[in-house]
Amino acid sequence: MLLVPIGVAVFAFSLIIGHFISEPLRLLAKRTAAYRTGADVPLEPDGRLFEADQLAADFKGLVQTMKAQQHDLALKERRQAAFISDVAHELRTPLTAIRGNAEMLEDPDLPPELHEKFCGIIINESERLSRLTHDLLTLQRIEDDAAPMELARVNLRELSAGVLDALEPILRDRQAHTEIVGEAPDVLGNLDRLKQAVTNLVENASRFIAPGGHIVIELFGLRGNSILAVKDDGPGFGDADPKLLFDRFYRADASRSRGTGGTGLGLAIVKSVVEAHDGTVEAINLPEGGACFIVALPSIPAEAVPAKA
Predict the structure, then answer these.
(1) Which of 17-26, 96-105, 251-260 has the highest mean pLDDT?
(2) How many Å apart are CA 304 and CA 221, to the nearest integer?
(3) How far is residue 186's CA from residue 157's CA, in Å, rounded to a whole number?
(4) How far apart are CA 38 and CA 65, in angstroms?
(5) How confident is the model at residue 202 (pLDDT cuts 50, 70, 90)?
(6) What angle do CA 139, 141, 143 make, to 5 degrees?
(7) For 117-131, 174-188, 258-272, which range has the lowest pLDDT when averaged over its residues?
(8) Does residue 210 contact residue 289 with C-beta atoms inside 8 Å?
(9) Beta strand pairing status for 187-189 and 225-232?
(10) H or E element in which residue 308 lies
(11) What is d(CA 11, CA 5) in angstroms, rounded to the nearest whole number?
(12) Contacts for 129-137 with beta carbons within 8 Å, 24 or more apart?
């Protein structure tokens, strides 16, 4: 007869234990179901059951990861939409100029001097379209290329000298005085891409200096980084946010930049190249006037010097 009440007590006790064990799991299931309907419910561990707390923590981490991915995807989509809009806007201007001037050339009574003028405009706008297309493809290749870059030891002074030699016709035409100052430790990088970044910085500086102006490439090492600074004695970039200068198609003065032949992508390419090398780039207005663009790249550690006997 004693077994009956003992069995009832054990059964009741097991029901109570089962309730307390399953309650956190039932609550977690309700929260998960509510979250699936779009409700913003917390998935926090409540401390009542270790296994349920672990499961809640895993769900919370999964939700946070999913939200971060959704945010990144939405941001990427907004950037792509803005990029497409910007490209369409940039292409519209030269295409409109080309079409308008081509229509003027259809006039059989057009004077020869105007004929030459309109042909020159068409040629200039076509060249601008070509530069814009080239820069767009370059930027896409840099940002979308998943293949690892071919890296090698790069001497920044030799690279800078090569850039000035390649740009010599343009710099001579703009009467620019150039100089390379200092030395910097070698870096591990892709020579072609780094050369393109420095080329863009020097060419950008040459657009805004007065005839006979100066462009200085200064090199030095600082705290494990190799610094390459491109300085000019032009007007600087005024009150514009330095960070915005590296955005695609950003121009502190749109009309002036178009007049100098810029596509608005040169500095964006510089930023993409530098960041692909784990470096940083920033811009400052110099106190004495002019702009300075500073590139910092991780230096190759100096090789150990053997001790003298």
Answers:
(1) 96-105
(2) 17
(3) 9
(4) 16
(5) very high
(6) 70
(7) 258-272
(8) no
(9) unpaired
(10) none
(11) 10
(12) 129/91, 129/94, 129/95, 129/98, 131/261, 131/263, 132/90, 132/91, 132/94, 132/263, 132/265, 135/263, 135/265, 135/266, 135/269, 136/87, 136/265
Measured distance CA(59)–CA(29) in Å, rounded: 11
User: Is 162 within 8 Å of 195 (Cβ atoms)?
Assistant: yes
Enumerate the β-bridge partners of residue 177. Answer: 214
Q: How many CB atoms lie within 10 A of CB 298?
A: 15
pTM beyond 0.90, yes or no: no
Q: Which residue, chain included where needed, has tokens 């106190």? A: 287
Nearest Cα to 155, choosing from 194, 181, 205? 194
Which residue carries 């993409």 as its tokens? 272
Residue 188, amino acid: L
Specify whether the CB–CB gap between 265 and 139 falls below 8 A: yes
128, 94 in Cβ contact below 8 A? yes
